[in-house]
Structures are given as structure tokens and as C-alpha cells.
Amino acid sequence: MAQGYLMLVLHNHLPFVRHPEYDNFLEERWLFEATLESYLPILYHLDRLNREGIDYNITLSYSPTLLTMFNDELLQNRFKRHIEKLLELGQKEIKRTASKPEHALAKMYKNRLIKMYAFYQDRCRGNLINLLRELKSTGKVELITCSATHGFLPFMREEAVEAQIAVAVSTYQRFFQDKPPGIWLPECAYAP
Q: Is residue 2 part of a domain?
């Protein structure tokens, strides 16, 4: 029987959303919800695997826009505020559902929020890039990039494709101090 390999590659991207001119901008919630419900839990479990000595290998792709938003102080502060508001809502839900069947569910969500917030503050030190660097250094997590804006490369002019890749490489180097070992093709699109 032929032997094969399974390669886990998780691609992470969001368009750039940052609006300092508004206190609360709807599109920034995309980042906050994706971070709280996807990016943080994945990193939490990879960190747990490391702490428990469980061997694994995974490739994570992060777009330059997403890395830049992770590293943005304004968005970091707004993300913390977002979680704090959810914690307040969670407490209200626990009180509101005290005698209802949903009470256990409200407590479960509030406890999960508390755990993710503590993980973000303590292990990530308020910036997911801190933990990404640490996970990368273990050799178990390979980090790759994606084109600058996640544009559909086959439909772009050659100069635009080169610019997309150049920005992707320089952004990766800025955050991880070396060249990316690979690149995720946006929309898995390729043209020879």
C-alpha cells in the first residue's frame, strides 16, 4: 500500500478594517468575532498541545492585512473593550436565565469568554503575534503568508501580482524576522 501524508493548512484572512474616526465601527466586529471565535481558540489549543507535550505539525497562513490588524494598538484596545462588553452581557444573561433551562448555557459561554480573555491577556500579552512567534519557534507550527490584499492573482497585471507578493513578504519579515517558507494562493487561484 502506498504511504501518503496529511498536511493541515489553515488559512486566516480578513480585509483590513480600522476606523479610528468612529468609536464603534460595525466592520471591526468582523475582526473581533473571528479573533474570539476562531483565531484565539486555535492558538489556545495549539499552546495546550505544547504544554501537554503532544507532538503535532500544522501550517497556518495569515494574510498581511490580518497580521497588521493583530498588531494595531487601537484595534487591540477595541478588541479588549469588545470582550469586556460581552462579559457584561454574559453576566446579565446568567442573571436573566437563573431559573430557565438556558442558565447552564449562559454560564458556559461566560466561562469560555473569561478563559479566552485571560489567554489573550496572559499568554498572548495582548497581541496574537507574540504567541504566533512563540509557536513558530517550536518548529511544530509553520507560518506562511498570503498575497497583500487577498486579491485574485490570475486576474491582475504582472506588476500588481509582484507588488502583492512583495508586500506579503515584507510584512511577514517585519513580524517574524525571516522569509516566509510558503504562500497561500488567494481563492486557491493559479495561472501558469
A: no
